[in-house]
Amino acid sequence: EVQLVESGGGLVQPGGSLRLSCAASGFTFSMSDLTWARQAPGKGLEWVSGIDNDDRTYYADSMKGRFTISRDNAKNTVYLQMNILKPEDTAVYYCKAAVRRWSLWGQGTQVTVSS
């Protein structure tokens, strides 16, 4: 089955950390460009970070220095390490895989930053 499954979300206090995972199946993961995006309550989809199939990484300005994207092609998994979390990071986080004009989204994982 062709799918992306996110995990690792949850409730964390401000200043805390979480690591999100996105496990892929059913397509050639190593050839894909991968993206994390998020959607906060009442807001639109926001691009967070990306990693291409040459392991080049990209971050939105507000995430630089706090978030780290990585991939493990042997495990068909992309990660998002999130540190120094803030209440405004509360959102549903989605991963996306893309190869040329084909793309696939996961179902999302909820991250809530609150004391």
Short summary:
The protein contains no helices and 11 strands.
Blueprint (SSEs and pairs):
Blueprint (H helix, E strand, L loop, with lengths): L2 E5 L2 E3 L5 E8 L7 E7 L5 E7 L5 E3 L7 E6 L4 E6 L8 E9 L2 E4 L3 E5 L2
Parallel strand pairs: 2-11
Antiparallel strand pairs: 1-3, 3-8, 4-5, 4-9, 5-6, 7-8, 9-10, 9-11
Descriptive tags:
4-stranded antiparallel beta sheet; mainly beta; 115 residues; 0% helix; globular; 7-stranded mixed beta sheet; single chain
What does this structure look like?
The chain is an all-beta fold and 115 residues long. Strands 2, 4, 5, 6, 9, 10 and 11 form a seven-stranded mixed β-sheet that branches. Strands 1-3-8-7 form a four-stranded antiparallel β-sheet, with no helix packed on it. The chain contains no helices and eleven strands. It has strands at 3-7, 10-12, 18-25, 33-39, 45-51, 57-59, 67-72, 77-82, 91-99, 102-105, 109-113.
